Amino acid sequence: xxTMRFASTSQYQQWQQDKLAAAATAGDVHPxxxxxxxxxxxxxAIAQQVTQCGFALYRxxxxxxxxxxxxxxxxxxxxxxxxxxxxxSDPDSISTLRDSGDNQRKRGxxxxxxxxxxxxxxxxxxxxxxxxxxxLLHCEQDAASGGxxxxxxxxxxxxxxxxxxxxxVEALSHPEAMSIxxxxxxGKEIHGWMTGPVFSARADGKGIHMRYTARKRNIxxxxxxxxxxxxxxxxxxxxxxxxxxIWHRLAPGExxxxxxxxxxxxxxxxxxxxxxxxxxxxxxxxxxxx
Length: 290
Ligand SMILES: [Fe+2]
Fold this sequence. Notes:
By secondary structure, the chain is an alpha+beta fold. It contains seven helices and 19 strands.
């Protein structure tokens, strides 16, 4: 099964050329001059960047502090309405990400600590009908040091794998490519086995959905030489810190809006007045293609 269909070789080459050209702009930061009433032009520029690169960085004016409601309204400009309420989100479905110390560390919830986070897409452990289409990650306060985010367009990862060996993207599109074991907490099963492809066609038919984690523990990969070779290539690609991998340290008032791009985080250290604080919203919707 292939996740991307092209009518002809020249159509593929055009897509490939466009993707590679757009990747050079992926690190651009889009200003939002009037956050209370963002201009149609600035919203369109961000939506276009997401279409081309899988994600876009934005920056609010200095002195403007985004409320949680502002984030919800901001998402709606891009057609993002169906928020996912995960285990650790607050009642408004927005998660507050900060170092909550040893308790979270012991429970294995790395996002709520200061530790590095491996490359992944969000919700890779969700059932097929609850895949995460988009996320919004907003920095209210950066850490004293560290905490840079790595970002990569899943379609660019698909392209790199495909151009190296088309069988690799086929292997990662197998319905049993990646399985996540059940999550059991205090004797209660939160989810059972979650088995599915890494790459699949988006439900709206307008691009690729990616389900991935570089986490080594508790992941079962389809035991097949092609799958394992593809994974090694992908891991090396993400660790290369080039080839379309963007590193950005979000400053206060900056954020990422994305069609569930690949992302990771370096570890960080808080200091006096510099307690890293991020907000995150996850959606079942995708940002519409422009
Ligand atoms: Fe994430």
